Amino acid sequence: MSHTLAMNQDYPVLPPAEDRHMQRKFVALAATMILTAACESLPAAGGPGLSGTTWQLETLGGQPVPADNIPTLAIAEDGRVSGFAGCNRYMGGTTIAGDKLSFTQMASTRMACLNVTIELDYLASLENVAAYRIEDGRLSLIDAVGHVLSTYRPGA
């Protein structure tokens, strides 16, 4: 069967069989792109994801964190961040693109506490976060030059 290309004054009109073939190619390409994007954003099988997990601080600046009043970090699916800084609660937003992460519009409560050294250092470290990594179920927050600022384990 021979098809000829019908010409309209403004644009060529493809015969119906060729049009369906192009539609199938487009749908296949779109599905491939969507699946690829979805796979890139999923955590490792069985491991915790960045959002939907309450993370407990393990180290800050390479040093272990004391067991009392351990800071936490929780990022919601909509990008809101909240947690406990050691004395006060904090909240704000995030910008996430691939493995890049930054915290935005941060605020905290202002309760009076005796020892706020960990809290002040912790909140200051969040301002310097540029990326994250999840390996072996542990979250690492990383600065712009690749130094690990803090590490977390999934909370109970």
From TrEMBL:
InterPro entries associated with the record: DUF306_Meta_HslJ, HslJ-like_sf, Hsp_HslJ-like
Pfam families, sorted: META
Coiled coil regions in record: none
The DUF306 domain, residue ranges: 49-152
PANTHER family: HEAT SHOCK PROTEIN HSLJ
UniProt protein name: DUF306 domain-containing protein
Lineage summary: Bacteria, Pseudomonadati, Pseudomonadota, Alphaproteobacteria, Rhodospirillales
